[in-house]
């Protein structure tokens, strides 16, 4: 069980990365990155899905499906608070911040391109 699965379990519901990935038909690593991107984007101004898609290159439709499987905006808000309030959880976002600018979303773009087969 990953740290993200633990946080999802603490947030409520019967959620885990593998089941979300299976329901949408994506790889679990892609689901984990999408959840991290949505969680980070939720703390920013604007539409969460559009912000995450614009900053990462993830397909907005896939991100919307992930958000729906998580339980929508209220669950994203709860996850965002939990991630920001937990140093270990925040490390999930910080791991993706390859350039150290404090915004992991722009760094997820390169990972997303590989997962979605874009160059």
Account of the protein in words:
The chain has 119 residues and is an all-alpha fold. It has one domain. It is built from eight helices and no strands. The protein has helices spanning 3-11, 17-24, 28-42, 48-56, 60-70, 73-85, 87-96, 104-116. The longest helix is centred in the N-terminal third of the chain and has 15 residues, at 28-42. The protein is globular and about 30 Å long. The relative contact order is 0.17.
Oligomer: single chain
**E-strand count:** 0
Main sheet properties: none
User: Helical element count?
Assistant: 8
Gyration radius (Cα, Å) is 13 Å
Residue-averaged pLDDT, rounded?
75
Q: What is the structural class?
A: mainly alpha
Straight-line N-to-C gap: 32 Å
* Beta-strand proportion: under 5%
The poorly predicted ranges are none
General shape: globular
Order of helices and strands: HHHHHHHH
Q: How many structural domains? A: 1
């Amino acid at each position: 069980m990953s740290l993200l699965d633990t946080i999802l379990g603490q947030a409520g519901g019967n959620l885990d990365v593998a089941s979300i990935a299976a329901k949408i038909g994506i790889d679990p690593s892609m689901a984990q990155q999408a959840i991290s991107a949505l969680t980070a984007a939720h703390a920013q101004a604007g539409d969460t899905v559009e912000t995450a898609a614009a900053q990462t290159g993830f397909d907005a439709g896939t991100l919307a499906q992930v958000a729906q499987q998580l339980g929508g905006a209220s669950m994203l808000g709860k996850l965002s608070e939990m991630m920001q309030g937990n140093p270990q959880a925040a490390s999930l976002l910080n791991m993706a911040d390859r350039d150290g600018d404090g915004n992991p979303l722009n760094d997820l773009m390169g990972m997303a391109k590989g997962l979605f087969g874009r160059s």
